[in-house]
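hiii so um. not sure if this is the right channel but i have a protein structure encoded as tokens and i wanna go backwards to a sequence. like what aa goes where. can anyone help
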């Protein structure tokens, strides 16, 4: 599903150029659950932005389902994100005074999906993310951190993306709640979704089936925590 070949990313500030990614190459198969792990400043966030089509590399090739993402213009990148990638962030990014259902429905409003279909798809996404129907009418600021993250996961799922990209999704949660959220990702992966988890924590990364370690802009390790599935 994902092929990265010799990805280099540089930022220029005046006469100074900083190389953040230094020739990163790897593949991710459809249905894999992969963690990308590295310390602050390692380049993992830059890599996440490239994988999520939020940025493009300075050089190298990024193929997603055979399409060269690294060559797409901004409007095509936006369309690709909308169709193929669901994002989950550490800070949730929910509308605090909107209901849970409204928060999840919003991406479908922008996609011009009809009202009844929007509601049904949003309800289905919330249930898939593990949030019971009794909470769907609550305001998002009435929920616990773990429940808010489940709403964020549901919002990422509602367009039925092929890839779920989660950036430090347990960073604002206690360990027990974080484990429940990680169990949700595991279940979504079991259902066939490709999950890519960005983290700096080894304990979080080990919930994935495979861990890619980034350090100083380079891929320094690629290991499995569990045997590959048939």
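sure thing!! here u go:
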């Amino acid at each position: 599903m994902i092929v990265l070949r010799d990805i280099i990313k540089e930022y220029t500030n005046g006469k100074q150029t900083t190389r953040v990614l230094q020739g990163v190459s790897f593949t991710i198969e459809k249905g894999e659950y992969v963690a990308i792990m590295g310390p602050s400043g390692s380049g993992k966030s830059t890599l996440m932005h490239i994988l999520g089509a939020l940025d493009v590399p300075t050089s190298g090739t990024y193929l997603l389902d055979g399409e060269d993402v690294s060559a797409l213009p901004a409007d095509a990148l936006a369309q690709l994100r909308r169709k193929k990638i669901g994002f989950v962030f550490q800070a949730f990014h929910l509308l605090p005074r909107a209901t849970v259902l409204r928060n999840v429905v919003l991406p479908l409003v922008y996609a011009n999906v009809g009202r009844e279909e929007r509601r049904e798809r949003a309800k289905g996404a919330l249930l898939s993310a593990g949030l019971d129907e009794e909470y769907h009418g609550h305001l998002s600021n009435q929920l616990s951190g773990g429940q808010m993250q489940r709403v964020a996961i549901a919002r990422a799922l509602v367009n039925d993306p092929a890839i779920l990209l989660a950036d430090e999704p347990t960073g604002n949660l206690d360990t027990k709640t974080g484990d429940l959220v990680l169990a949700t990702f595991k279940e979504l992966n079991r259902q066939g979704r490709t999950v890519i988890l960005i983290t700096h924590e080894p304990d979080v990364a080990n919930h994935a089936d495979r861990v890619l370690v980034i350090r100083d802009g380079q891929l320094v390790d690629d290991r499995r925590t569990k045997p590959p599935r048939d």
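oh and DSSP finds seven helices and ten strands in the chain.
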